[in-house]
Write a structure and sequence with these properties.
The structure holds two protein chains of two kinds. Helix content of chain A is 23%, strand content 22%. In chain A, the strands form three sheets. A six-stranded parallel beta sheet of chain A has the order 1-12-7-4-2-3, sandwiched between helices. A four-stranded mixed beta sheet of chain A has the order 8-5-6-9. Chain B is of the alpha/beta class. Chain B folds into two domains: 414 residues, 3-Layer(aba) Sandwich (Rossmann fold); 71 residues, no CATH class. Helices cover 48% and strands 11% of the residues of chain B. Chain B has a six-stranded parallel beta sheet, sandwiched between helices. In chain B, strand 5 and strand 6 form a beta hairpin. The longest helix of chain B is centred in the first third of the chain and has 23 residues. Classes of the chains: A alpha/beta, B alpha/beta. At the A-B interface, helix 1, helix 4, helix 5, strand 9 and strand 10 of A face helix 2, helix 3, helix 4, strand 1 and helix 8 of B. Strand 9 of chain A pairs antiparallel with strand 9 of chain B.
């Protein structure tokens, strides 16, 4: 008998029969849809990102390239790696390398930073999600450089975790990375320290996409 | 060892599910360590406050707990079907699935895969399953060095120590102790290293960075595995997980069979329950998900080992199987008055605290962990904190009863506590016997000091070995009630 057959036989003999089968669809009454929209939703995302020590900038689609330029210059980032499909003009004076999939970890480690887009963002938890598609790249490029500048479009923002999970159902087979603030540890006396192995600085630009939605300066007050 | 329906339990002689000493002995030793108690008290109170704050933010927390409980119960009902579905989905995407009856088999598979990859070292993501099966020891025996990359696991490994908490394995160490360990064990540590957590984390970053860049094999556990899609999920904070899951060419994941969840949508429940219960954050900094091999991104040789190691023995006990619902958040440890005072080492197993007290004895068979079901005051705080509503106090009582029944069946002499429990139920079942016993109990006033009895005479000595008994009152409740009716 193979280990597979034996473990499955044990399970068959041991399993419960007196409990309800999986409902398939959640009917447990937890929130599956958020109620916030527009600047209210963007404000929550910005507030929650800042609360977990990410840096946040807000701009319009028209001002995006200028905002990226300002962020890189304030950071002093001169060598940048970008994924294919970023679709963004980076400022003169920044040395930009497009990832060709061949750069090893040591080479990626030498860049000052990486600029990517995102697949989705969750406002309530201050989370950005990368799925490796165009403009986001393979996982290693947003992991090795010490600075990650991530552009989120207002249309990609949902309020709740179950909303994001539902939208990701069709890309479940992709390698997904959920990022909530810069890397951190609380392993020493439960004291939170930002910046261990992943990028020590995470900066998020929330782009309001169309100019229809009002844009406010900083994170919304609680 | 076999138990319910002849299901094999986790084998002896491998892994870390059994302690060297029974809980009362180990706990007494731990209680004598005032530094340990200070470290634990500070850490558990900090994390309790963080958890309470983020849980109170969610208006639907109780609904999420109920959903989590229902999903886990439904998973156990059709566990075999979901595992076969998971296996097919992983294989569809180019992953290789292995099955392991127990720790020895899982260790042998990891060793063989590492050797086949031509590697003599592996980098590890923090994983309870690989701690449980003693993977690092097995790899060392085969000449393979396993490097723990989670900061707390690194502290434990460099300190030649054992983990004492599910989430924060080095919770028993304070900053000064950690600094000493780093200076002693890290060849590249700066002698001027301070004990600031920021400086210590930076030292770990530098120490591990080269390892990450050169390792060819990564080993991980899994927090969740989605049957529907074949997706594995690891939640973490530091980025060491992302390093291990992304940079090596070969990735080997060891997962207990109970970690499977049926559908993709179920992640929407558990990715809210776990981080808030565990680190007390709205979301942990990094969550990685992968489905078999992702072409052009990360490891191109991906393996999944499905581990039993006593889980089917737990599954076979209808009153005990809820312990398998655990998502390893450690909230029950942080609220437990016993854990807060004894720490994790006293439990002997890698699974300490209330959940460990109900999980470890079921994985090993109760005869190998007979004192753990008694390592609780049954106060119920663990049940309230559990994100999937495992009724741990009820499980503890059930396992105590099983221990007494199995001991007497096997002709073994049960503990003084077990006898006392059995005797108490006989006495309390009959009003006349109870009245007589209560009157006799008042004799205890003779041997009490300051309202406490520290050592009862045999056969009750077993009871006071681990606790003080209160002085019996001068009058029993029943006597008082009778006198009240007369007047």
């Amino acid at each position: 008998m193979t280990a597979r057959d034996e473990v499955l036989a044990r399970i068959k003999a041991a399993s419960a029969t007196d409990v309800p089968a999986h409902a398939g669809k959640a009917e447990a009454g937890y929130r599956e849809r958020g109620s916030r929209t527009g600047s209210d939703l963007m404000g929550l995302l910005a507030e929650r990102l800042v609360d977990y020590r990410a840096q946040v900038r807000r701009t319009t689609a028209a001002g995006l390239e200028q905002e990226v330029s300002a962020a890189l210059s304030e950071r002093g980032a001169r060598t940048i790696v970008v994924p294919p499909g970023l679709d963004l003009a980076l400022p003169d004076g920044v040395d930009v390398t497009m990832d060709d999939g061949a750069l090893g970890p040591a080479e990626l480690d030498r860049f000052d930073g990486v600029v990517t887009r995102a697949a989705l963002a969750i406002a309530e938890t201050g989370t950005i999600i990368l799925d490796g598609s165009a403009g986001q790249g393979r996982r290693a490029i947003s992991l090795m450089p010490d600075y990650h500048l991530c552009i989120v479009d207002a249309g990609q923002v949902v309020e709740l975790v179950p909303e994001a999970v539902a939208l990701l159902a069709t890309s479940a087979h992709r390698a997904l990375t959920w990022i909530s603030g810069p890397s951190a540890t609380s392993d020493i006396e439960l004291e939170r320290v930002e910046g261990v192995h992943g990028p020590r600085t995470l900066e998020v630009i929330i782009s309001m996409g169309s100019a229809l939605l009002p844009c406010r300066g900083g994170p919304r007050e609680r | 060892m076999t138990t319910f329906l002849g299901m094999p339990t986790a084998p002896r002689g491998v892994g870390h599910l059994r302690g060297d000493d029974p809980f009362p002995v180990a706990a007494r030793r731990a209680l004598g360590d005032s530094q340990l108690r200070r470290n634990l008290g500070k850490a558990t109170s900090t994390i309790r406050a963080k958890r309470a704050r983020v849980v109170s933010e969610l208006p639907d927390w109780e609904e999420l707990r109920s959903a989590g409980q229902a999903i886990k119960a439904a998973t156990m009902r059709d566990l075999g079907r979901y595992l076969v579905q998971l296996e097919a989905a992983v294989q569809d995407r180019g992953g290789v699935v292995h099955w392991a009856r127990d720790a020895n088999e899982a260790n042998a598979i990891v060793t063989r895969l590492t050797q086949a990859a031509g590697a003599t070292e592996v980098v590890k993501v923090k994983s309870m399953a690989t701690d449980e099966i003693g993977l690092n020891d097995a790899l060392a025996d085969a000449g393979i060095a396993a490097y723990e990359t989670d900061l707390a696991e690194l502290i434990v490994q460099l300190g030649h120590d054992r983990p004492s908490h599910i989430l924060v394995p080095a919770i028993h160490r304070n900053r000064a102790e950690i600094r000493q360990i780093f200076l002693r064990e890290m060849a590249d540590a700066d002698p001027a290293l301070t004990d600031e957590p920021r400086a210590l984390a930076e030292a770990a970053r530098l120490h591990l960075r080269r390892k990450f860049m050169s390792a060819t094999v990564g080993v991980s556990g899994a927090n969740f595995a989605v049957a529907e899609t074949g997706t594995l999920c690891v939640v973490e904070s530091e980025g060491n997980g992302r390093m291990c899951l992304t940079l090596p060419q070969t990735l080997i994941t060891v997962m207990g069979i109970e970690k499977v969840i049926p559908t993709w949508a179920d992640l929407g429940v558990f990715l809210q329950l776990l981080p808030r219960s565990s680190t007390g954050e709205r979301m942990n900094p990094y969550t990685s998900m992968w489905t078999g091999v992702t072409p052009g991104d990360g490891p191109q040789s991906v393996h999944l080992i499905l581990l039993d190691n006593g889980r089917t023995a737990a599954l076979a006990d209808p009153a005990g199987r809820d312990a398998l619902h655990c998502i390893r958040c450690s909230a029950c440890l942080n609220v437990c008055p016993v854990y807060e005072r004894t720490g994790g080492h006293a439990y002997g197993s890698v699974y300490p605290g209330p959940i460990g007290a109900v999980l470890s004895p079921q994985l090993t068979g109760i005869e190998d962990n007979p004192t753990l079901p008694y390592a609780s005051s049954l106060c119920g705080a663990c049940y309230d904190a559990c994100p999937v509503k495992i009724n741990i106090p009820e499980l503890l009582v059930h396992l105590r009863a099983r221990h007494v029944a199995e001991s007497s069946r096997a002709g073994r002499v049960p503990s003084g506590e077990a006898i006392a429990m059995a005797a108490a139920s006989w006495v309390m079942a009959d009003p006349r016997r109870f009245r007589t016993a209560q009157r006799a109990g008042r004799a205890g006033r003779v041997i009490s000091k300051g309202g406490k009895i520290s050592a009862l005479p045999p056969p009750l000595a077993g009871w006071t070995k681990a606790r003080d008994a209160p002085e019996p009152p001068a009058q029993t409740f029943r006597q008082w009630w009778a006198s009240r009716e007369r007047s």
